[in-house]
Design the sequence.
């Protein structure tokens, strides 16, 4: 009924665990005030009491799962996770070398690999006055005479012309150089793009070295490209025809050096993941928060069970 009756009932229930006589006296007092209609105190059966305690413990244990912050949950091993520079700043060094090498190869226009001089120039251009041409693997470019100073200059705005195979012999060295040039461009560009992923994703040591093998292969193929200078175009007419390095060959030389430097950086050091490096340096500091959180969770569970046991009693 009234708040006074409920308070006395609770007091009687607590006193009953101490003295049965006090509990009977309280029951009589409550019955007198209510006219004999006071409800009997609810007594828990031993089996129900044990079941209730187990349910409270289960509830307290399951509620602890919601107390763990989401930041403490680590991704499953082997899962893909993206983060900024997971291997640190070192991974950028070979990446920049490989990218600059690839851009150096792409900067050529296809007809500026070498400068050709000799009698072969007159045969190609049908003009005996032209002293030289710039040749590539597939095309060549003729210079133009500047009437102001009488010098032969190249106009880069003028397009390239295809080689006349009736005059020029595309021998085995020429064909081999074209193949190696293509393979170097593909492997070097693919390796540069692939290693860029190390700035976002975690590379294992095998994957890191695989990128190095790809760039090393690009370096070798790029060096083999210089076999083009062994063609008859550069050694014909009893050695009067000459070929010298021009922009394209120098750009390939720069790309070869940069790809080699990138592969060397990859093989010399594997930058470990930043999380693994910090754990290796401070193993105690990494484990102490987990132990502290576990101890706090066990303390909260024990406190919740003890409080619920008092309430049930």
Sequence:
């Amino acid at each position: 009924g009234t708040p006074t009756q409920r308070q006395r009932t609770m007091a009687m229930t607590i006193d009953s665990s101490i003295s049965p006589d006090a509990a009977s006296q309280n029951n009589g007092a409550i019955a007198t005030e209510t006219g004999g209609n006071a409800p009997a105190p609810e007594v828990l059966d031993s089996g129900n009491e044990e079941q209730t305690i187990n349910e409270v413990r289960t509830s307290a244990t399951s509620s602890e799962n919601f107390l763990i912050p989401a930041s403490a949950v680590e991704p499953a091993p082997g899962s893909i996770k993206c983060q900024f520079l997971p291997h640190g700043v070192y991974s950028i060094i070979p990446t920049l070398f490989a990218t600059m090498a690839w851009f150096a190869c792409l900067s050529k226009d296809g007809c500026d690999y070498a400068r050709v001089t000799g009698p072969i120039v007159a045969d190609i251009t049908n003009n005996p006055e032209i002293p030289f041409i710039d040749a590539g693997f597939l095309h060549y470019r003729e210079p133009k005479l500047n009437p102001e100073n009488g010098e032969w200059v190249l106009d880069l705005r003028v397009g390239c012309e295809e080689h006349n195979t009736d005059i020029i012999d595309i021998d085995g060295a020429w064909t081999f150089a074209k193949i190696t040039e293509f393979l170097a461009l593909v492997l070097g560009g693919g390796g540069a793009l692939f290693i860029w992923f190390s700035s976002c994703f975690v590379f294992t040591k095998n994957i890191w070295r695989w990128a190095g093998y790809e760039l090393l292969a690009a370096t070798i193929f790029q060096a083999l490209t210089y076999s083009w200078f062994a063609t008859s175009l550069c050694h014909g007419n009893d050695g009067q025809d000459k070929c010298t390095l021009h922009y394209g060959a120098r750009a390939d030389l720069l790309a070869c050096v940069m790809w080699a430097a990138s592969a060397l950086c990859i093989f010399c050091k594997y930058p470990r993941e930043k999380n693994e490096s910090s754990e290796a340096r401070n193993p105690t500091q990494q484990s102490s928060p987990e132990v502290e959180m576990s101890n706090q969770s066990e303390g909260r569970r024990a406190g919740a069970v003890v409080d619920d046991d008092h309430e049930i009693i």
